[in-house]
């Protein structure tokens, strides 16, 4: 029987070519106009997950790695 992919999880992360799992930084949703440019630019990059979390996520996504 085929395994189901966790759709909520796949929408929140990106898996790179070398099997690294990245996620969006927090604090993007609102109150951004009050921040200065330095803080806004610091939020733009994606963050890599911890290796233990990466292992659990790759197990939950059977066909995407």
Structural write-up:
A hairpin with a 5-residue loop joins β1 (13-15) and β2 (21-23). The longest helix has 10 residues, at 51-60. The protein has 65 residues and is an alpha+beta fold. The protein has helices at 7-12, 37-44, 51-60; strands at residues 13-15, 21-23, 47-48. Strands 1-2-3 form a three-stranded antiparallel β-sheet. The protein has one domain (7-26, 33-60). It has three helices and three strands, in the order αββαβα.
Offer a concise description of the structure.
The chain has 65 residues and is α+β, with helices and mostly antiparallel strands.
Task: List key phrases describing it.
65 residues, alpha+beta, 3-stranded antiparallel β-sheet, 3 helices, 3 strands
Number of domains: 1
- Report the span from N to C terminus: 19 Å
Rg (CA only): 15 Å
**Largest sheet descriptor:** 3 strands, antiparallel
- The counted number of beta strands is 3
* Integer average pLDDT: 88
- The ordered string of helix (H) and strand (E) elements is HEEHEH
Enumerate how many helices there are, as a single number: 3
Helix percentage range: 25-40%
Stretches where pLDDT is under 50 for at least 5 consecutive residues are: none
Strand content: 5-15%
Helix/sheet category: alpha+beta
Widest sheet, order of strands = 1-2-3
Report the principal-axis shape. Answer: elongated
């Amino acid at each position: 029987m085929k395994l189901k992919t966790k759709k909520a999880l796949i929408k929140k992360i990106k898996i790179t070519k070398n099997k690294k799992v990245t996620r969006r930084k927090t604090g993007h949703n609102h109150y951004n106009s009050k921040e200065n440019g330095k803080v806004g630019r610091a939020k733009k990059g994606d963050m890599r997950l911890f290796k233990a979390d990466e292992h659990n996520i790759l197990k939950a996504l059977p066909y995407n790695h």
